[in-house]
C-alpha cells in the first residue's frame, strides 16, 4: 500500500516532465480537428472544391511546420491569414464607414465579418499540444517535394535588400504582410513564416505553390534560384524581429 | 460492338483532360484576379492598400480598348514585366492552360464592354 501511494505520487510529479505522457495525439486530431482540417489529402483539385475548404490542410503538416512553433501556437492560437482561409468569403466592396480605409475617399474592397475580430480556435493544454505536434509531424506524404531541397545560408541579405526582392522585384508584398498590417491580405503573414515553417518547405512552396496546393491563388512568380535562397534567408531573418516592441 | 467500344474509349480519352482542368473564366477571375483587381473589376481589390502601382481598372473601356487581345494574353500569361509594366502584375503561366487564358481575355472584353480599337 505504501508502495502504491509512493508510485502514484511519483507518477503525478513526473508526468508534466514527460510532456505528452498519456495523451494520444492521433486520437485528439481525429476527434477534435478533423471536422475542419483535412488530415488525409489530397488538396482541392478544382476551384469549387477549394472554395469549400474551411481550414488549412494539415495532411502534410510534417513536411511544413516547425515542431516548436506548433506546440506554442496550439496553446495560444492567433490569426495567420488576415483575410481568413478563403478571402472571397470575407471581403466586401462597400466599405462600412466605421472601417479605416487609409487612402481616404478610395472605395477599395475591405475585410468584413469574423476576420476583423481575433481568431477563435481550439486551445490545447501543453501536454495535448506536445502530443498533437508529434502526431502532426508524423504526417509527411510530400517527402518527394522537399527531397534534395536545401537552404544555402551563405546567400545572405539584409532586411532592406530582402524587402526589395519581396516588394519591387517579385511583388510578394501585394498579398502578404511583412509586418503587422503592412502588405496585402489574401496570403498568410510572412513576418512569422521563418518561425512557423521549415526552410525546405518555403523554398519548395515559393518555387511552385501548385505542387502543394494545386488551385491556390498564389502565382508561381518564376523566382530565380539565387533569389529564392535570398528570400527564404530574409524570411528567417525577418521572423527574428520583435514586432511587438516596434509598435 | 467493337466499333462502339472503340469510339467510347476515344471520346473518354478526349474528354479526360478537359474534365480535370478547365475552369470557367468567371471562376478563375473571381479566385485569382479579384484580390487585386477588385470585386467590381475596377482595380480596387482588397490587397491594394500598400501596392505602389495600382491594378488596372478592367471596366475602363478607354484604356482597355487600347490593348490587343494578344497583348492581354501576354500580360496574363507572362506578367507585367513582359509588357514593360509593373512586376506587381504576376505571371499566371503555371496556373492556367492557354485555353483558360484565352477565355479570360474574352471575359475582360465583357468587363470593359469593349474591343481593341485598332
Overview of the structural elements:
The complex is a heterodimer of chains A (247) and B (118). Helices cover 40% and strands 4% of the residues of chain A. Chain A has 247 residues and is mainly α. In chain A, helix 5 packs antiparallel against helix 6 and helix 8 crosses helix 11. Chain A is globular. Chain B has 5 helices and no strands. Chain B has one domain: Cytochrome c-like domain (Cytochrome Bc1 Complex, Chain D, domain 2). The termini of chain B are far apart. In chain B, helix 2 crosses helix 5 and helix 4 crosses helix 5. Chain B is globular, with a radius of gyration of 18 Å. Chains A and B meet through helix 3, strand 1, strand 2, helix 8 and strand 4 of A and helix 2 of B.
Question: What's the SSE blueprint?
Answer:
The complex is a heterodimer of chains A (247) and B (118).
Chain A lengths: L1 H13 L10 H9 L13 H5 L9 H4 L2 H9 L15 E2 L17 E2 L14 H12 L5 H4 L12 H11 L7 E3 L2 E2 L9 H4 L2 H9 L17 H14 L4 H4 L1
Antiparallel strand pairs in A: 1-2, 3-4
Helix pairs in contact in A: 2-6, 5-6, 8-11, 10-11
Chain B lengths: L1 H20 L3 H13 L23 H4 L4 H10 L19 H15 L6
Helix pairs in contact in B: 2-5, 4-5
What are the main properties of this structure?
heterodimer; A: 247 residues; mainly alpha; Cytochrome Bc1 Complex, Chain D, domain 2; 3 domains; two-stranded antiparallel ribbon; two-stranded antiparallel sheet; 12 helices; 4 strands; 40% helix; globular; B: 118 residues; 5 helices
How large is the radius of gyration of chain A?
21 Å
CATH topology of the largest domain in chain A: Cytochrome Bc1 Complex, Chain D, domain 2
Q: What is the count of structural domains of chain B?
A: 1
What structural class results from the helix and strand content of chain A? Answer: mainly alpha
How helix-rich are the residues of chain B, as a percent range?
40-55%
Query: What portion of residues of chain B belong to β-strands?
Result: under 5%
> CATH fold name of chain B, please?
Cytochrome Bc1 Complex, Chain D, domain 2
Radius of gyration of chain B: 18 Å
Named at the architecture level, the CATH assignment of the largest domain in chain A is Orthogonal Bundle
Shape of chain A: globular
Assigned CATH class of chain B: Mainly Alpha
Spell the H/E element sequence of chain A.
HHHHHEEHHHEEHHHH
CATH architectural type of chain B = Orthogonal Bundle
Per DSSP, the total helix count of chain B is: 5
Q: What is the CATH superfamily classification of chain B?
A: Cytochrome c-like domain
Count of DSSP strands of chain A: 4
Widest sheet, order of strands of chain A: 1-2
Approximate helicity band of chain A: 25-40%
Distance between the first and last residues' Cα of chain A: 59 Å
User: Which structural class matches the secondary elements of chain B?
Assistant: mainly alpha
Assembly of the depicted chains: heterodimer
Amino acid at each position: 500500500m505504501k508502495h502504491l501511494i509512493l508510485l502514484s505520487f511519483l507518477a503525478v510529479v513526473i508526468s508534466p516532465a514527460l510532456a505528452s505522457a498519456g495523451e494520444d495525439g492521433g486520437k485528439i486530431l481525429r476527434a477534435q480537428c478533423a471536422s475542419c482540417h483535412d488530415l488525409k489529402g489530397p488538396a482541392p483539385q478544382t476551384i469549387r472544391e477549394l472554395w469549400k475548404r474551411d481550414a488549412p490542410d494539415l495532411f502534410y503538416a510534417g513536411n511544413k511546420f516547425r515542431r516548436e512553433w506548433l506546440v506554442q501556437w496550439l496553446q495560444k492560437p492567433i490569426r495567420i491569414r488576415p483575410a481568413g482561409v478563403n478571402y472571397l468569403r470575407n471581403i466586401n466592396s462597400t466599405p462600412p464607414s466605421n472601417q479605416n480605409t487609409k487612402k481616404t475617399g478610395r472605395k477599395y474592397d475591405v475585410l468584413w465579418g469574423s476576420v476583423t475580430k481575433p481568431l477563435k480556435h481550439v486551445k490545447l493544454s501543453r501536454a495535448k499540444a506536445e502530443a498533437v505536434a508529434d502526431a502532426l509531424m508524423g504526417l509527411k506524404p510530400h517527402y518527394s517535394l522537399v527531397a534534395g531541397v536545401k537552404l544555402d545560408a551563405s546567400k545572405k541579405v539584409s532586411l532592406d535588400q530582402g524587402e526589395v526582392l519581396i516588394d519591387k522585384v517579385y511583388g510578394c508584398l501585394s498579398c502578404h504582410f511583412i509586418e503587422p498590417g503592412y502588405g496585402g491580405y489574401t496570403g498568410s503573414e510572412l513576418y512569422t513564416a521563418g518561425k512557423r515553417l521549415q526552410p525546405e518547405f518555403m523554398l519548395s512552396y515559393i518555387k511552385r505553390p501548385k505542387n502543394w496546393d494545386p488551385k491556390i491563388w498564389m502565382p508561381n512568380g518564376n523566382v530565380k534560384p539565387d533569389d529564392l535562397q535570398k528570400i527564404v534567408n530574409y524570411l528567417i531573418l525577418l521572423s527574428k524581429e520583435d514586432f511587438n516592441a516596434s509598435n | 460492338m467493337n466499333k462502339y467500344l472503340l469510339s467510347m474509349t476515344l471520346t473518354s480519352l478526349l474528354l479526360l483532360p478537359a474534365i480535370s482542368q478547365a475552369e470557367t473564366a468567371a471562376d478563375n477571375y473571381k479566385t485569382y484576379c479579384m484580390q487585386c483587381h477588385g470585386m467590381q473589376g475596377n482595380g480596387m481589390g482588397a490587397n491594394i492598400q500598400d501596392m505602389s502601382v495600382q491594378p488596372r481598372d478592367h471596366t475602363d473601356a478607354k484604356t482597355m480598348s487600347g490593348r490587343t487581345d494578344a497583348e492581354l494574353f501576354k500580360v496574363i500569361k507572362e506578367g507585367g514585366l513582359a509588357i514593360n509594366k509593373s512586376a506587381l502584375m504576376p505571371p499566371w503561366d503555371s496556373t492556367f492552360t492557354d485555353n483558360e487564358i484565352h477565355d479570360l481575355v474574352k471575359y475582360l472584353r465583357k468587363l470593359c464592354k469593349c474591343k481593341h480599337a485598332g
